[in-house]
Hints:
This protein is α+β, with helices and mostly antiparallel strands. It has helices spanning 67-70, 81-90, 102-109; strands spanning 12-17, 25-38, 50-60. It has one domain. A hairpin with a 7-residue loop joins strand 1 (12-17) and strand 2. The model has no long low-confidence stretch (mean pLDDT 89).
Amino acid sequence: MYGGKHIVRGDTIFVFASENEGGPGLLASGIVTSAEAVPKKRGIARQTPRLNITIRRTALAKRRLGRSELRLFSKWIDGRPETELNFKLHRQATNKIAGISDEAAAFLRGFF
């Protein structure tokens, strides 16, 4: 979803622990050490691309960034990194891998 199927070994990743499942939101950053597509199941017309990834953690978040902090940023066309993250992570409450802009990545680096 949102470009996540293009993740490859060596990419930087930001890990969010799902608040819907009791997690705190932004948790860690890391480097992808392996990424491989999960084969689609036969007989299902429409399937979301799925991946198995392995990550080497490089840092733990020092400040909180979760749904409550991002909720204020909901004007979808304002161009802010917070709005991009709110849209991609919280618009649909599902676990996902999402590609983000350089601006959003720079914003997230400020939490480590």
